[in-house]
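Example 4.3 (complexes with small molecules)
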Amino acid sequence: MEQKENVCSVAKKCGGCRYQGVSYQEQLRRKQRITEGLLKKFGKVEPIIGMEDPYYYRNKVHATYKHMRNGDIAVGRYEESSHRLVPIESCQIEDQKADEVIQTIRKLAKSFKIKIFNEDSGYGLLRHVLIRTGRKTGEMLVVLVVASPVFPSKNNFVKALRKEHPEITSIVLNINDKKTSMILGERNIVLYGKGYIQDELCGYTFRISPHSFYQVNPVQTERLYKKAIRLADLKRKEKVLDAYCGIGTIGMIASKQVKEVIGVELNRDAIKDAISNAKRNHIHNVTFYNEDAGQFMVEMAEKGEHADVVIMDPPRTGSDEAFLSSVVRLAPNKVVYVSCGPETLVRDLKYLTKHGYRMKECTPFDLFPFTKHVETVVLLSQLRQKPDDYIDVDIDVAELEGTSAETKATYEKIKKYVAEHNDGMKVSNLYIAQVKRKCGIELAENFNLPKSEDARQPRCPKEKEEAIVEALKAFQMI
Ligand code: SAH
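Answer. The structure with S-adenosyl-L-homocysteine bound is encoded below.
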């Protein structure tokens, strides 16, 4: 029987978790349906990858404080799309230690007589607290967001906080003196520790500063990144563009499998982290650029530069036409699109599929259990590859078996389809390859088939050819 989830007592008011009270299996089913509804027009949507334990996954926690009429301090989150505070003591999806620190700061703010900032009057000091934890390293960064750099008895405050939570590895004062709904201001003053946390993903260490983006669910992020890199099917010779690269995670994790990585990212702090992360991990084949990704791509295209693979991971608003049109001009063989906004993904896929690309694989990942959000990774390949990408060599059937996971999957799907629709008929990779060539579909680069048909090779019988053609039609490959 499916487990009934415990319902959070403030679920309705908070609004962060759309799926409170819905079993996790049902959440996954709904997200699958939503993703399929949006994306199946581009091709098959694989089953969503869910979590084994969908609780307390968020490594980034944010809280806001408020003075109550009775002199107490309340702590919680803003109601969705408003600035009304919903008091919250603990949350099912947030790091539990971080939630405890947030409660301790409430207690200390009262005893240290720290004034809580009032958005209406603009009076007061403490605006928000932001906590980041490194799931693997156990490091914890506490950012006290304040309206002014003058924080009374700050040394004693830091001492008292660290005494109750020795797990804190750094404390930063962030100055936000603007009338804004943004949480962080521009300036950081380090009160204790390094001013950032380190965490590990896929065997690499990353520094993450307060302003840099870092995925909030590290368990699922590792799976997502591995999938994205596997889809790119790298062979140590590629030039890979990691667009919207943040602190450089995806590109660096892929770096061993490629010739060169170029990362581009708009946020200056994230790029500083990325450069430092490359050093930290002794990676020498990555270069980072602090630029708008669209602008950067336009410049690359104008200079006539090339990229073999573009990995793109834009924010929820998706990419833009400057970027997408330059992807088309640069003409990488593969585009791996990591998306946290399925609607904008649809918009961008419409553009790319209209301009010579086809969705080859699509897998949703549940990075945000209980919330409405869903992450998706999509592989796009060029419809037709350039003749230069093929090498004339003679090979035998045995060689054909050693193909990439991606190509194999496609071949496996064709085999399965043929068997299911033709009383278990078996067709070999070689026969599929022959029929694909005959139909004018170029083969993936690791299928180095001879251009002239070799008489020594077995030829696909008519009946099997027809069955394969049917399968290719069913998969909309012809
Ligand atoms: N790939 C990274 C970051 C993904 S989040 C990771 O997995 O951690 C999206 C990133 O795009 C953020 O770091 C954000 O700062 C950056 N970004 C937003 N708009 C951008 C733009 N126009 N050009 C380049 N980067 C941008």
